[in-house]
Please model this.
Amino acid sequence: MHKAVPKGTLNEPVSSDEPFLRLPPSELRRLALTYGTPLFILDREYLQRRMQTFVEAWKRVFPQGQIYYSYKTNYLPDVCRTAHASGMGADAVSGYELEHARRMCPQLPIVFNGPMKTRAELKLALDIKARINVDCEEEIDRLSEICAGAEAGYEVGLRVNPGSAVFGSKDRSFVRAHMSAMQRTKFGWPIETGLAARIAAKIISRGFRLTAIHCHLGSQITEQRLHFDAIGRVLDFVKTLRQEGSEIREVNIGGGLGVPGMVRQRRGWWSAIKQEMGEPLDEEQTYEIDLDWILSSLNQALAERGLTDVAISCEPGRYVVSSAMVLLTSIMGVKQLDGRTWVVIDGGQNLMPTAAFGERRRMRFIANGGWELTDHDRMPCWIGGPLCYEGDTIMQDVSCPRNIVADDFVAISDAGAYTVSRSTNFNRARAPVVSVGDHGDRQIWAREEYDDVFALGKIAG
Ligand SMILES: Cc1ncc(COP(=O)(O)O)c(C=O)c1O
Model:
């Protein structure tokens, strides 16, 4: 049964030194005029602090645990370098991410995850001594083939699925849909049905050493109690495996930790009906996780299960990088229609695709002259992107100053996760990234041009 969702504590409010809050409007204007918009802005010192603080908190409780930075979240070389300088290894989920890890951090631990792994990728992972977390059963066969009799030395991990909900909502139709999605997911092997135990046995019977269990349960999880309960099921599974003689030494809980200040919409068909009938909808949750609570609870959970020699590892993504970047856009039009105002900006879901999942970010409105538009007279607007399809909306029902006009700027918070690495050039070329900090600004990722978009065509002649 779905348990009531306790609120997380508010011990980590949105940090006032994050670039979204800290950058003065005149500086945002200068960056826009220097580099053009749309523009991603990375605050390198803030990122360093955020990553460093995370590693220190984790290592205080789990000194043996590994922290693998999730490359897919943001693979900018500067970001990866910062992660590695703070002591994090790499979490790669494809061949080119593995290659990136080989170049960026050959001396640090690398984990290879993902729902499918080709022979060539598995071979590369073995060559660079990355820990492989098996997801498809056929990966075991591919590994056996590559190892050709030398399996005995190789340590392998297995991704499992505890099948429990990690998101809560007052809208029970959302929770039901989420619950069934968690049980039907393509990722990992369900613990409850015995399938995870079967795959674990297969790995061992092929002569590999099964030394790690992995799970990753979702993204922007802020219901820490639900998250913790789900991981508890994984620890129960590990306890059983160990009682049966397996040598699990690492439990990797993946990523998923929700960032403060960002809300992901959690509404189902029930809310849709209410909206259609003109009834008020429940407020979205805004609470935040308490990392110290999670770490100490996990530590206690290990002790209760007699697993104190098991290291807890993780793969943080958005938690460490989301707030380190801002997306700066220009307003290209303010369209007053009957009953709705659209503010059309020059960056959309091509740069911020997770806006499509109903992620709500904070926005600042800056006049073209370089001052904050803090006018108290506000109007509700929909913020639309520049792409030529209807769904390209960055956010609905945003409270905007009434006096915004074309050529003003909109700065959008939490542009560090799943933006640059998930950008597409559908309709428009990708945006550049400028890094700002104590020693000035420098461009660290170029604006995509016509020739970049069509470069691959040259191969075909
Ligand atoms: C296996 C794995 N690890 C880590 C992450 C990072 O997740 P997050 O950015 O939510 O921390 C992901 C993201 O989907 C993932 O699939």
Q: What stands out?
A: Confidence is low (pLDDT under 50) at residues 1-12. Residues 103 and 425 are 26 Å apart (CA to CA).
